[in-house]
Amino acid sequence: ALTAGIVGLPNVGKSTLFNAITQAGAESANYPFCTIDPNVGIVEVPDHRLQKLTELVNPPKKTIPTAFEFTDIAGIVKGASKGEGLGNKFLSHIRQVDAICHVVRCFQDDNITHVSGKVDPISDIETINLELILADLETVLKRIQRVEKLTRQKDKEAMAEFEVLSKLRDAFEEEIPARAVEFTEDQQKLVKGFHLLTSKSVLYVANVGEDELLDIDNNKYVQLVKEFAEKDEAKFIVISAKVESEIAELDGEEKAMFLEELGIAQSGLDQLIQATYQLLGFATYFTAGEQEVRAWTFKKGIKAPQAAGIIHTDFEKGFIRAETVSYEDLVEAGSEQAAKEKGKVRLEGKDYLVKDGDVMHFRFNV
Ligand code: GDP
Questions:
Q1: Closest Cα to atom 6 of ligand 1
Q2: Are 83 and 220 contained in the same domain?
Q3: pTM
Q4: What is the ipTM of this complex?
Q5: Mutation test of ligand 1: which of 21, 76, 211, 242 has the most ligand atoms closer than 8 Å to its C-beta?
């Protein structure tokens, strides 16, 4: 399954946020393909379209939102890439995630120790980023050693790789992450193959105190993180992990009331889920039958057979066609039958690029 990793220095609020995620958590019986691990929390992606589709199908037995995973990656401290703290065990965990959610402490609380003595979000961010860059530098230097020999024999592929590696090394030495280095399309393919930590998309999550949520424009820490994110080709959101842990304990109606009291439209967790979803280039397609109405996550750019494969590998192997209607057309028509009569249901083949909001019915050979 698709996953995002939560990183940050100790005592910034990672566990508080992660516990809120698992508590608000999805019903795992619906997601048998997800990992069972205490450090992994499954979240449902809120999507108002699912409700509407459920009404149209009057009524399906089940409605199942799409979900993805958050992994709690503890253990990054200064020197971690050289084996300090929990050592570099975290590196292998980060390699496995699709995106990084970097939690940054923006709350002031003298009772809670800050690892470096004072609240300083930019220095915190740089500490973590430096560890990731150092780990990548090591990866790149090792590869350079191997490739250099081949370049002396004028091996074309090796020379192309050497050029990319050198550019990365220079960037890392200036503490620039791989995602901020410009490459041609061909070079990007090479970079992808190196599985670098700093190639991954990053979302900075500014964690503010519970009484600060409504006044973030005056929070100088938040503003600093925001500016940093803009420079760093990264996205940024503000949450209060403390508040999220309180929200996670409430049910639907209580939750709505509490949010209204706080004066916010959407819980931080829902914002986090949606921001991560966008960051990763994820989109949603739907299946809608009498058994269930269900949302499925896919990565933009895939074609109909791969989308079918997300449900079951047999659907991909035996793919014939996908009956497809856009969510908007279906809702406007009012029913699948009406959409068909209006000619809005298309028969798409194996080259069809799946779009966000497609409602699909796959035909396949077994
Ligand atoms: P981690 O080490 O990054 O996982 O941090 P924790 O989630 O364990 O949080 C460290 C401490 O900070 C805990 O005592 C939390 O209750 C506290 N904490 C987390 N978020 C907030 C917040 O927004 N405001 C305040 N005052 N304390 C917080």
A1: 13
A2: yes
A3: 0.85
A4: 0.94
A5: 242
